[in-house]
Design brief:
- The chain has 28 helices and 26 strands.
- By secondary structure, it is α/β, with parallel strands linked by helices.
- Among the domains are: about 220 residues, 3-Layer(aba) Sandwich (Hexokinase, domain 1), CATH 3.40.367; about 375 residues, Nucleotidyltransferase, domain 5, CATH 3.30.420.
- The chain has a six-stranded mixed β-sheet with strand order 1-11-10-9-12-13, sandwiched between helices.
- Helix 1 packs across helix 13, helix 8 crosses helix 9 and helix 9 crosses helix 13.
- The longest helix has about 35 residues.
- The chain starts with a helix and ends with a helix.
- The structure holds 1,5-anhydro-6-O-phosphono-D-glucitol (2 copies) and beta-D-glucopyranose (BGC).
- One 1,5-anhydro-6-O-phosphono-D-glucitol binds next to helix 22, helix 26 and helix 28.
Length: about 850
């Protein structure tokens, strides 16, 4: 028994000594956590360089867009083929995906060798080989008679501009095939497959093996957003935010980025960590100076690294009594399988002895311990470096999501990770040490990236089907320039109808005279009250106007809510509510006793016989108060003031919000002769020549016409562009058949319901697209209508070119990200002879109503004199 303990002590001491010896000798390969954290930082910087447009071309880590934007959502189904080239074997798969809600699928596979004449021959032979293998597989599986979609896993750096295309940037690993670099490998595969008349496959997707691995694991775990390969070569992909991917249009959602981390350090970024053995290995490789990170990690290289180290240690007498064997001098003599065998937990040492003996090295016990430790250090460095780069990716994911802690899943595959005795455990441990803020689940891909390629194909088909459904749904909203010209011309016709006595009665665009005959001339002055009813908010304003050198307008206003039950109650309740608000305002301003002149912005179609009379033609927007239509709203307001019997006001003018807006802007810019509202509703007014306004006496000068273009099309003249959604919204509205220009938002909700969308990231992108299309159409229609107006003004003036300003207000114009730009572009396109300045009304139409009141007062006083 004592002898056994003595032997064990002797062996432990021997082991410690050998390990220390090797540790000292291979110190540069043993990377501390500080170094790994530093590598993490360097890799994060490389990722940013690769993602950004300005630095991508010089970046070593190319961050290649994969055009895979979403993970499987379980609705994929069908039969798919997949071929997988680039790992240690060529793989062909048939993948059956069942949408039985249980995410179930069936995989049939066949593996084929990749002999040197294939991996280092010419392109045509390579793709013919792939096609032959696929044909053999389809014969074996009796699939030749089927037309099947195919996903192509091609594990090399490819530049893609779409899913079903990939231009090879460079060969890596043990591949160096002539005539393929800088060509589209999908085209080459299609050509090779077409040579086989008896098979009919449709290559729908090209994916990197990391992407395939992520998708394979993503089918079982929707948290999987990273794919890692640690095999012959190494690489990783992950889901990046579109807004960070400069090389691809769009900011919405995410896209899978194939990092191609194998090239990390090709610009010297890791030279302080690369050893003489790394440099020697690289010089002897198929692609010197390339894939330097991969050459410290991949199973294609670790065996050779161990050989080069053992060779140098032997030459320096540290091993095998300095006796080198031919085998040890032979490149590639030690392979990964040997390294893994030597590192096996129990039989590692005996394997080492056996392997070294096979290499004619006659190893001592010490030698075996030392060599085993060399293997450990080499494979440990591989796992450490992988862990550092993966930790960088996980940190970026967590930062992208702005999370303090993140749970995620990493799909992983590759012979080294799967077969090396301790590799996986080491990698997990170091990753979790480097990123303690990430709960990482490592999910081994059991069915290879081929299934993932099929999943990508299935998702591509699902998205393609969805795309065509969306395109078909949204197509009616896309208005061509020709259609917009038609709308402009039809609007023009309707404008004329509204102005002409004999057609005015049936006109839909009512062209209501406002009795506002001029824009402010700066002589206006005094204190005025103004009401602003009909937009999002009801406002009561006090407006102080100074004329002359100290010409200015001061405003105080208070916003009041108009509850729905008031908007849709009785007229009396509505006007009592308005008067209540006025009372609160006068109280608040301490001017209850003052009988101030008041301008009433009433943003609904009113037929006026004078500036202070307005008969409501019909409610629009969300209003539906009873006993008002056909009534004079000024009288109703006066009535309500009388009913309250608390204060008295001199109601001088009732104006439409478009008119108020025109006046507000006209006060700053005399060229402003048009007022446009694009808000809850939409409408426009403009100064028309009296001679064209047949329903008002007189031919001199101008008068502002409130077009009420909201009713454009109520006679069906634009039914050709109205969609079923417009009809549905109209039928569900307060005034069906009226105001057919109802702007955007309601349609969006109806369309989304139609597309059966709930809330995934993909859906939000589609939601945004639907909103974009609907609001674009709204802006274009507005633009077409306005083009008709400015063109009419130009003809009125009989000029070749017209300079004019449009005063505009409304939340849609002010707040929507694109509406104002699209509107202006459309006007420019449809009224090229008009230079239109759009002037945003900062002060609202209440100021305009006060100015109109001031003008009316001034004219009234002149009339008195
Ligand atoms: C299995 C995957 C394949 C990938 C391979 C890498 O299905 O796409 O290329 O892993 O591992 P290797 O065969 O190089 O060890
Ligand atoms: C602000 C104007 C008001 C007009 C409103 C329209 O002062 O008269 O009714 O814009 O925009 P909305 O509030 O409907 O978006
Ligand atoms: C290739 C990658 C591939 C990795 C793993 C590398 O050599 O450049 O595209 O993902 O090997 O197979």
């Amino acid at each position: 028994m004592f002898a056994v303990h003595l032997l064990a002590f002797h062996f432990t001491k021997l082991k410690e000594d050998q390990i220390k010896k090797v540790d000292r000798y291979l110190y540069p390969l043993r990377l501390s956590d500080d170094v790994l954290v530093d590598v993490m930082g360097r890799f994060q910087a490389e990722m940013v360089k690769g993602l950004s447009r300005d630095t991508n071309s010089t970046a070593t880590v190319k961050m290649l867009p994969s055009f895979v934007r979403s993970l499987p959502d379980g609705s994929e189904k069908g039969d798919f083929l997949a071929v997988d080239l680039g790992g240690s074997l060529f793989r062909a798969h048939e993948v059956k995906v069942f949408d039985d809600g249980r995410q179930s699928s069936q995989l049939e596979s066949k593996f084929y060798p990749t002999p040197k004449e294939v991996t280092q021959g010419n392109g045509a032979e390579l793709f013919d080989y792939i096609a032959d293998c696929l044909l053999d597989f389809m014969e074996t599986k009796n699939l030749k008679h089927k037309k099947l979609p195919l996903g192509f896993t091609f594990s090399f750096p490819c530049k893609q501009t779409k899913l079903e295309e990939g231009v090879l940037l460079a060969w890596t690993k043990h591949f160096k095939v002539r005539g393929v670099q800088d060509t589209d490998v999908v085209t080459s595969l299609r050509k090779a497959l077409q040579k086989h008349k008896d098979i009919d496959v449709d290559v729908l997707a090209l994916v990197n093996d990391t992407v395939g691995t992520m998708m394979t694991c993503g089918y079982d775990d929707e948290r999987c957003e990273v794919g890692v390969i640690i095999g012959t070569g190494t690489n990783a992909c992950y889901m990046e935010e579109m807004r960070h991917i400069d090389l691809v249009e769009g900011d919405e959602g995410r896209m899978c980025i194939n990092t191609e981390w194998g090239a990390f350090g090709d610009d010297g970024a890791l030279d302080d960590l690369r050893t003489e053995f790394d440099r020697e290995l690289d010089l002897g490789s198929l692609n010197p100076g390339k894939q330097l990170f991969e050459k410290m990690i991949g199973s294609l290289y670790l065996g050779e690294l161990v050989r080069l180290i053992l060779l140098k240690m032997t030459k320096e007498g540290l091993l095998f009594n300095g006796k080198v064997s031919t085998a040890l001098l032979t490149k590639g003599k030690i392979e990964m399988k040997h390294v893994s065998a030597m590192e096996k937990y129990k039989e590692g040492l005996s394997n080492t002895k056996e392997i070294l003996t096979e290499l004619n090295l006659f190893p001592s016990e010490e030698d075996c311990v030392a060599v085993q430790h060399v293997c450990t250090i080499v494979s440990f460095r591989s796992a450490n470096l992988c862990a550092a780069a993966l930790a960088a990716i996980l940190t970026r994911l967590r930062e992208n999501k702005k999370l303090l802690r993140m749970r995620t899943t990493v799909g992983i595959d590759g012979g080294l990770y799967k077969t090396h005795p301790q590799y996986a455990k080491r990698l997990h441990k170091v990753v979790r040490r480097l990123v303690p803020t990430c709960d990482v689940r490592f999910l081994l891909s059991l069915s290879g990236s081929g299934k993932g390629a099929a999943m990508v194909t299935a998702v591509a088909r699902r998205l393609a089907a969805q795309r065509s459904h969306i395109d078909a749904t949204l197509a009616p909203f896309l208005l061509s320039l020709e259609t917009l010209r038609e709308v402009r011309n039809k609007m023009r016709t309707e404008l004329e109808y509204g102005l002409k006595r004999e057609t005015q009665a049936n006109a839909t665009v009512k062209m209501l005279p406002t009795y506002v005959r001029g824009t402010p001339d700066g002589t206006e002055k005094g204190k005025f009250l103004a009401l602003d009813l009909g937009g999002t908010n009801f406002r009561v304003l006090l407006v102080k106007i100074k004329s002359g050198r100290r010409r200015s307008v001061q405003m105080y206003n208070k916003i009041f809510a108009i509850p729905l039950e008031i908007m849709q109650g009785t007229g009396e309740e509505l006007f009592d509510h308005i008067v209540q608000c006025i009372a609160d305002f006068l109280e608040y301003m301490g001017i209850k006793g003052a009988r101030l002149p008041l301008g009433f912005t009433f943003s609904f179609p009113c037929r006026q016989a004078s500036i202070d009379k307005g008969t409501l033609v019909g409610w629009t927007k969300g209003f539906k108060a009873t006993d008002c239509e056909g009534e004079d709203v000024v009288d109703m307001l006066r009535e309500a003031i009388r009913r309250r019997n608390e204060f008295d006001l001199d109601i001088v003018a009732v104006v439409n919000d478009t008119v108020g807006t025109m006046m507000t802007c006209g006060y700053e810019d005399p060229n402003c002769e048009i007022g446009l509202i694009a808000g809850t509703g939409s409408n426009v007014c403009y100064m028309e020549d009296m001679k064209n306004i047949e329903i008002v006496e007189g031919n001199e000068g101008k008068m502002c016409i409130n077009t009420e273009w909201g009713a454009f099309g109520d006679n069906g003249c634009i039914d050709n562009i109205r969609t079923k959604y417009d009809k549905e919204v109209d039928e569900g509205s307060l005034n069906p058949g009226k105001q057919s220009d109802r702007l955007a938002l309601l349609q969006v909700r109806r369309i989304l319901q139609q597309l059966g969308l709930d809330s995934t990231c993909e859906d939000s992108i589609i939601v945004k697209e639907v909103c974009g299309v609907v609001s674009q159409r709204a802006a274009q229609l507005c633009g077409a209508g306005l083009a008709a107006i400015v063109e009419k003004k130009r003809e009125n003036r009989g000029v070749e070119r017209l300079q004019i300003t449009v005063g505009v207000d409304g939340t849609l114009y002010k707040l929507h990200p694109h509406f104002s730009r699209v509107l202006q572009e459309t006007v420019k396109e449809l009224a090229p002879q008009c230079d239109v300045t759009f002037m945003l009304s900062e002060d609202g139409s209440g100021k305009g109503a006060a100015l109109i009141t001031a003008v009316a007062k001034r004219l009234h006083n002149v009339g008195q004199k």
